[in-house]
């Protein structure tokens, strides 16, 4: 149930969350790492009870995590904290057990990504971890945007299958010439 919630409600917010983190983080090179930390906290917090407003919950986690990162770096800008405070939506305290559980979930997701074929894995990395647009990913890999879309679709389906306890294998529909040849007696 937790995995299904994450895939259904959290992952669709990824682009907006990445933009929020990029906009409010001092170190833009750490955006994907910060986003993964936020996902980890989201899974930990939702383990007890799924939030009624996932968007508010995720942005609260992001805000608090960014503030904590800034404090740890001892480079706290009053303007940055003020900007983050303006988006205050509540706070959730985390326990060590919940942190460990979320790390296990992320390891499980990483294992699912590692099962993907190389090109599909690279497309997933560029689009979902690095936050590139479809066009940017296509240019980086030297393929068409349609190839990126298809690889992303197959990769996400396989990852969801893996996260829900399935094999995590890519399943392609049979179409075109091969399907017609196989259909002949």
Descriptive overview:
This protein is mostly helical. The protein has 2 domains: 114 residues, no CATH class; 56 residues, Arc Repressor Mutant, subunit A, CATH 1.10.10.10. Helices cover 72% and strands 0% of the residues. It contains 10 helices and no strands. Helix 1 crosses helix 3, helix 4 packs antiparallel against helix 5 and helix 8 packs across helix 9. The protein starts with a helix and ends with a helix.
Which short descriptors sum up this protein?
185 residues; mainly alpha; Arc Repressor Mutant, subunit A; 10 helices; 0% strand; globular
Task: Set down the secondary structure blueprint.
Layout: H1 2-10, H2 14-24, H3 31-48, H4 54-73, H5 78-85, H6 96-115, H7 118-129, H8 134-141, H9 145-163, H10 176-183
Short description:
This protein is an all-alpha fold and 185 residues long. The protein has helices at residues 2-10, 14-24, 31-48, 54-73, 78-85, 96-115, 118-129, 134-141, 145-163, 176-183. It has two domains: 2-115, no CATH class; 117-172, Arc Repressor Mutant, subunit A (Orthogonal Bundle), CATH 1.10.10.10.
